[in-house]
Amino acid sequence: MSSQGPTEPAAPATASAAPSTAAQSIDLAINQRFWQERVAGMDPADPRVVTLDTESQASVAREVQLYQRWLLRRLDQRRAATGTVYDLGCGNGDWTVVLAGRYDRTIAVDLTEGLLAATRARLEREAPGKAIATVCSDIAAVPLDEPSDLIVLGAVTQYLGDDQIATVLQRAAASLRPRRGVLYLRSTVAKNAERRARKTDDYQAIYRSPRWYLDAIAAAGFVVEEWQLATDFVTDELSRRWLGPAGPVLG
Predict the structure, then answer these.
(1) Predicted model pTM
(2) What separation in angstroms does the CA of 17 have from each of 81, 191, 220, 221?
(3) CB neighbours of 132 closer than 8 A, spacing ≥ 6?
(4) Which residue from 3, 6, 33, 43 could staple onto 181, CB 3.0 to 4.6 Å apart?
(5) Residue 166 to residue 67: CA distance in whole angstroms
(6) pLDDT band at 112 (very low <50, low <70, confident <90, very high)
(7) Could you tell me which of 120, 69, 62 has the C-alpha nearest to residue 91?
(8) CA 43 → CA 5, 50, 52, 94, distances in Å?
(9) What is the three-class DSSP state of 169?
(10) In this predicted structure, what is the pLDDT of residue 71?
(11) Residue 81: φ, ψ to 5°
């Protein structure tokens, strides 16, 4: 997704304003406690700390690499590898480490100090000397006041309330440089409902439909250049790995 500008979308989002039903909220204190306990009880470098997957660590790491390759190849096509990047909901730093090696300045934000500590430790090992700032905060409370070239929301919006998502998207649109700025948003979605909530005393999440996200993104002023379901991008990336650049066509 690009920031406001004249770029024609590859897959336009014809959106109404915001979703019509009443806004749903998330108890951030519950989720902060959940993630703090999880990172304290696992190897912080294990990607399953933040993905919640039950597959092997190696399998989940390969899946994370597929997401990263998908985005980085598109950034290379746009020659968008300089300037400032925000990694919002950075978790244990899977994205932060990769982006820090490509951008002039990286700002990593997370609600949980334990995850930020894991991110800082990884950055010291894997990206020493890079200009990186870490901020412990609810991402909807961060002003995003630095002009930016990329904003990453990697699997974090399901842990935000509706109003928080609207705030983050509006601030992202204002922060990103016109025409060249890119927003990358990935989230677990609901297939058969506009929104499906899971709320307990230990864990809270709201899974929203792709249509809900397309509407919210368009309402914030973005042009959707590309969107894919996981099955589509996995097919694309695996066929490219096995068969080369022509792989997606053959696949």
Answers:
(1) 0.84
(2) 32, 21, 9, 10
(3) 96, 100, 105, 106, 107, 108, 123
(4) 3
(5) 24
(6) very high
(7) 120
(8) 43, 11, 13, 13
(9) helix
(10) 87
(11) -135, 35
